[in-house]
Amino acid sequence: MLKRHRYSFGLFWLIAIFLLPLSFIQTLSNGLPIIYQSEFRAIYYGTIAYVWMLFAIYLSTKPKWLDRLIGLPEMYMVHGMLSIAAIVLAYLHKEGTVSSGWIKTTGDWSFDLFLGLMIYSLIFMAGWLTNRVPILKQIKHILEKVFKHELSIWIHRLNILAVILAFIHVQLISYIVAIKPFIYLFDGASLIVLVCYLVSKFVQPLTYQQGIILLNRTIAKNVQELKIKLPRSSHMNLLAGDYVFLAFPDYPGLREMHPFSIANAPNKERVITLAIRGDGDFTRELGQVTTDSRVQIDGGYGRYQAFLDDQPQTSNIVILAGGIGVTPLLSTIDANIDRNLKIFYTAHKQDDLLYLERFDHWQQRPNIDCQLQVGRFKDVQVLTQLPKDWQKNTVFLIGGPSSMMHHWIKVLKQNGAGNGQIYFEEFSW
């Protein structure tokens, strides 16, 4: 039977929003002096805000175990939304409490820094928001000529400084420090997140795979194809549909990790292929990377294949792809070539349709039907060609522009599809 609901993501939200702060609030409420009763609510707001920010920082370390469970795009969306909610609660905390001296100073510095970073991140790093708010998207395109990828990464890291200031702020409050169960929990959680963050920045890079560029060529307007040879000793856990983070240590401006989907199913030759469109300063510079250049690789990340593995192997697979968003789905098709596949692939221009020879090859198979066209498919075109009883025996993989993906999600749900039947990955950071 198909999984029609995404229980793991709902459970993740429940833990992040309610369960994580619960123990902090419980230990704090048992020890707060009654003299501060009028500030209790504001103190709780500040505590929840701090816990959410700690969790947001932990998510920024890209824990692979959590990626395979709910997906990194979902993690980053939660990271952004929790950060916004934390700022709101921090403001209520600030307005509802009275402090002075260094207690007030460190608290104000932390809040002001968080607020500034939140505004910056909403423009440059929260694609899940800018893709839905046109004016923010326009502002981003204008400003990113100055605030390039590497600079944005370093600015975003100032969140650690803001958390440290909030930590010092709490340590200076004598009646809070006197609540030993709370302060042990507070310090312990802060230490754990700090260690995880430091490991991700200084230890984990030592484990990155060192690949070599075998080929770098233009396959369409503004699209580069990179073939990368992994080392013979590679232990990278790559699945079909995955993406990897790449950095080029020998090229200024390309030294910070950036995610790209693999276009081929993992193979014994340990060669991965990527098709990359030049949308930002990082991707536009890829054309200068020469053969035999070194590349650092972290991966794999993604849930396309894990999603399919969670469903019955007899279920039909329908793929809805647009433009460069077809890239991870190409490798997914290769890895599931014996399944019943229905493919709808579209692009704005004929020249933007990538790897047509692969679709011609797949079309020869009796279990695969490929529909390619220039311009978006109409709803009725897709709905009338879906397998019989598709609400019960079909899963959907979607890749493409944000507006396209959300359109098809809406259409499918309106016609009876469940959340658990649909999977997509929105590169929104």
UniProtKB/TrEMBL annotation:
The chain crosses the membrane at residues 12-36, 42-61, 73-93, 113-133, 154-176, 182-200. The keyword Ribonucleoprotein does not apply. This is FAD-binding oxidoreductase. It comes from the Bacteria. Pfam families: FAD_binding_8 (PF08022), NAD_binding_1 (PF00175). It comes from Companilactobacillus huachuanensis. Keywords: Membrane, Oxidoreductase, Transmembrane, Transmembrane helix. Residues 206-310 form the FAD-binding FR-type domain.
